[in-house]
Specification:
binds guanosine-5'-diphosphate, binds manganese (II) ion, 611 residues, 6-stranded mixed beta sheet, 22% strand, binds 2-phosphoglycolic acid, GTP-binding, single chain
């Protein structure tokens, strides 16, 4: 015991509740030694990881890592929310009684760190001093040094952050054990992985993965699942899978803040990093606040605020290039200390590459290995077309590296929210943008978000499914109370935000090309929404919201086919009528859905019938 306590003393870890938690788990896991991690340890940890061949150099101040080939995305099936209250069971949270599931996952963990170092990562999700700070503290325990490197980039990490907690016991206990990855039966009937959030005990127990979405416990498990539960249980806030950005009109000096949810790998990071199109750059600037999580609450002044609890970006690499997202490329250039995961890597030149980074693959395959670690030069002809990078390969970098990060991105009081948007990959039906003025209709729209799933989750890519508010994989409590909590929190705000549904992914039914150019051009839809909110444009009222008139959209410098633009701004009433039946079935699954949501559904359905 004395041996195990020494590293805690040396690191200056004084919080007695944290010490007790750490020592308990060190013994249970059988850890050989303990190491307490702070952000200031990064350079040393990088050197150790390089020396141990856990990461490879990818240019000056850049690093590469490859995860086990069957461990490259979140596993929704193996993700469980547990509590001691059966009434917490929802449609999507895979609820289990904590008495039943806790021993199972703990059983897998027992003794699993024998001979290993147990890293202790004290972190804060939210800038210090925020009104939600008491929900932000956590301590991740992990056996994986690369997880430490990611956590240092994605969260605020340091002993000082948890020593002085107002309530020393109020921190999330987050335990991560990688497990013996080649022997966990991933995707089989004998799958050994468990990703459990014991929400009413504020305890996270993840076993069987080192992929970021499963292993960076501050991010998704705490920042989304636990935070959503805490926000509901306390009645104080919403924890959502939202990006958060500001749009400044340099002529008037005004800034509007927009947050919004799109399913994983559906454009949040790109939108928050948007560089205005060249023709609009003189006048407008987009500032980045967050790209994956926002916590929303009504502050003492009666207004709705949002903040990003994270300190970094865990971005999808695919198709990131100078045209689509120059800002992201700046955030991962040499010297940024960025990490790349599961992209292609050249072991001679230390370059990285992913599909869409350049129009063509590197011509000389010498030294290149694909995301599985296989030499490109050794590929069989029938594998020639396989991607070099995993479709869910990622880059990890801190917010401070993002060129358009907002000047006040660390303001713990967040920013006032003017608009809330939902979107996703929807190949038809959904226009470019439709604005919704009414709170219940906005919440209804979020609850009925239907989109194609992506490679960010195992085994569901391309599947069309409902993904309420883009929270389906992160939902921690039942959907009826979730909707009611939304109505309560946002409904309490003095100035109501405008809602909108956006879609950058409508396709031509014949050849499948995207009708809207997307990326930087998406700002045009958001500018219209801001003008709509201000009453400067009126749009055209449809049964499902207000769509822009063609002349209201700022199209300066944009080349777009006139008929395709018409399609993007048109409501296909027949297709929408058909959709309403599916929505009804979808909503019927949710017990105790507030009557206002059903009323919104019936209003939209009646308006469609009257068309
Ligand atoms: P996030 O996971 O929701 O943050 O999504 P990202 O912004 O990382 O984007 C996921 C994938 O969608 C990447 O491959 C992007 O290149 C692509 N993407 C993002 N925005 C757009 C867009 O406006 N149009 C198209 N066609 N693709 C986009
Ligand atoms: P994403 O974040 O939404 O940027 O893809 C990771 C995830 O949700 O798995
Ligand atoms: Mn996400
Ligand atoms: Mn993202």
């Amino acid at each position: 015991m004395a041996d195990l306590e020494k590293p805690l003393d040396d690191a200056g870890l004084t919080n007695p509740a944290v010490r007790e938690y750490v020592l308990h788990w060190a013994q249970y896991l059988g850890a050989e030694r303990i190491e307490v991690v702070s952000a200031s340890d990064d350079a040393r940890l990088i050197q150790e990881s390089l020396a141990a061949d856990e990461i490879q150099p990818a240019g000056e101040g850049l690093y590469y890592s490859r995860s086990y080939a069957k461990d490259t995305a979140r596993s929704e099936e193996r993700t469980i929310v547990a509590t001691s209250r059966p009434e917490d069971e929802g449609v999507y949270n895979n609820w289990r009684h904590s008495d039943e599931i806790r021993p199972v996952v703990e059983g897998h963990m027992q003794g699993a760190m024998a001979g290993k170092t147990m890293y202790v990562i004290p972190y804060l999700m939210a800038p210090p001093g925020s009104p939600l700070e008491r929900y932000a503290a956590g301590v991740e325990i992990t056996d994986n040094r690369t997880v430490c490197l990611h956590m240092i980039r994605m969260a605020r990490v340091g002993v000082d952050l948890i020593n002085g907690l107002a309530d020393p016991d109020m921190f999330v206990r987050a335990v991560h054990v990688t497990g013996d990855l080649p022997n966990l039966g991933q995707g089989t009937d004998d799958d050994q992985r468990y990703f459990v959030t014991v929400a009413d005990e504020r305890t996270i127990l993840h076993f069987g993965s080192s992929y970021g979405g499963n292993a960076l416990l501050g991010k998704i498990a705490h920042g989304l699942r636990q935070a959503a539960y805490d926000g509901w249980a306390s009645g104080e806030f919403l924890g959502e899978q939202f990006m958060l950005l500001g749009i400044t009109d340099k002529e008037t000096g005004e800034t509007h803040h927009i947050c919004g949810g799109f399913p994983s790998a559906s454009g949040k990071t790109n939108l928050a990093m948007t560089l205005a199109p060249d023709a609009l750059g003189e006048r407008y600037h987009v500032s980045f606040y967050g790209d994956d999580i926002a916590w929303l609450w009504v502050a003492a002044d009666g207004q709705l605020y949002g903040l990003n609890p994270e300190n970094g970006v865990f971005g999808v690499a695919k198709d990131t290039n100078e045209d689509t997202n120059p800002t992201a490329l700046d955030a991962i250039e040499e010297g940024t200390q960025a990490l790349f995961t599961n992209v292609a890597y050249n072991e001679s030149t230390h370059e990285v590459w992913w599909e869409g980074k350049t129009p063509a693959r590197p011509t000389d395959p010498t030294g290149w290995r694909d995301w599985k670690g296989e030499l490109i030069a050794d590929r069989n002809p029938d594998e020639a077309g396989d991607p070099w990078a995993h479709p869910n390969s990622r880059f990890t970098t801190t917010l401070a590296n993002v060129p358009n990060v907002a000047a006040d991105f660390e303001n713990p009081h967040g920013v006032k929210i003017d608009a809330i948007i939902f979107g996703g990959r929807t190949r038809d039906r959904e226009p470019l943008v439709r604005a919704i003025d009414d709170l219940a209709e906005g919440v209804y729209d979020g609850l009925t978000l239907g989109a194609e799933a992506t490679a960010a989750a195992e085994g569901v890519e391309g599947k069309l499914r409902y993904d309420p508010m883009s929270m389906r994989p992160f939902m921690s409590y039942p959907e009826g109370p979730y909707a009611a909590h939304w109505l309560n929190v946002v409904g309490a705000a003095k100035d109501q935000p405008v809602f909108a549904h956006v879609n950058w992914f409508q396709r031509d039914p014949e050849d499948g090309h995207f009708l809207w150019p997307g990326y930087r051009e998406n700002l045009r839809a958001l500018l219209w929404l801001v003008e709509y909110k201000k009453g400067q444009v009126t749009g055209r009222r449809t049964p499902v919201g207000v769509v822009p008139l063609r002349e209201e959209l700022n199209l300066d410098g944009l080349e777009i086919d006139s008929d395709e633009l018409d399609t993007l701004l048109t409501i296909d009433v027949e297709r929408w009528r058909e959709e309403m039946g599916h929505r009804e079935e979808h909503l019927k699954q949710f017990a105790n859905l507030p009557e206002q949501i059903w009323e919104a559904h019936r209003r939209v359905a009646a308006a469609l019938e009257a068309e």
